[in-house]
Amino acid sequence: MKVHTSQTLISDVDEALVKRAHTGSSNAFDQLVRRHQTAVRGFLCRMVSEPSLADDLAQETFLKAWKNLSRWRGADQAGGSFRGWLFSIAVNAAHDQRRSHVRGQKRDTDWLADQDQIASQETGLAAKLDLDKVLLALSPDQRLVLALCFGAGLSHAEAAQALSMPLGTVKSHAQRGRDRAIEVMRDLRPVAHGAKIDPSESKQP
Q: What's the pLDDT band for 22 if we cut at 50, 70, 90?
């Protein structure tokens, strides 16, 4: 008997919509966009820190997904979840944008910069202790994994798929990143008033 979790239900609905989209149903793909656009845009906002650019990259992500829909083999054929595949496109779009420097600007929150550069450039870290700020104190890989798992709600398996990274490595980055995030938040805000990450929330399949 198949046990349905929230993750499998999401995957099942996505797969049904993809099958309809394969037959030429633009309505089915529109539903896929509506289901995932908020999470994709939120992830890209954390990566590029510029809402208008994140919107452009999100649009590019869904356009590429539509054009390459036949490349997703489906969960039954070990193609992973549609959501994981979609976020792999979003990750690549963010990487490509960083490499090309389309806007000709060096952004202080460049997620490929090393830790020392990030710490020195982010002068407002103590003023706003939300997830986006905490991510800046993590290594690039930890930041990506937490942005996907905590920010976008992907499972560890989906994050591994999106990043083309071994599942064990993703789990390690998630654990170390969470520990580092808690440490940063405790250092920057009194424990009595600080935000905390509940370790139980990160236990993803």
A: confident
As a whole number of angstroms, the distance between CA 156 and CA 205 comes to 6
pLDDT at 28: 94
When pLDDT is cut at 50, 70 and 90, the band that residue 187 belongs to is confident
**pTM reported for the whole predicted model:** 0.69
| Domain architecture of the chain: domains with CATH | 1-106 (1.10.1740.10), 108-205 (1.10.10.10)
| Closest by Cα among 165, 144, 150 to 204 | 150
Does residue 181 register a pLDDT over 60?
Answer: yes
Q: Spell out the SS3 assignment of 124-179.
A: CHHHCCCHHHHHCCCCHHHHHHHHHHHHCCCCHHHHHHHHCCCHHHHHHHHHHHHH
What does the block give as tokens for 53? 């650019």
82 has a pLDDT exceeding 50: yes
Confidence of residue 135 (pLDDT cuts 50, 70, 90): confident
Q: List Cβ neighbours of 1 (8 Å cut-off, separation of 6 or more).
A: none
Question: Are 162 and 154 spatial neighbours (Cβ–Cβ below 8 Å)?
Answer: yes
205 and 7 Cβ atoms separated by less than 8 Å: yes
- Residue in the block written with tokens 């979609």: 86
CA distance 164 to 170: 10
Distance CA 161, CA 97 (A): 20
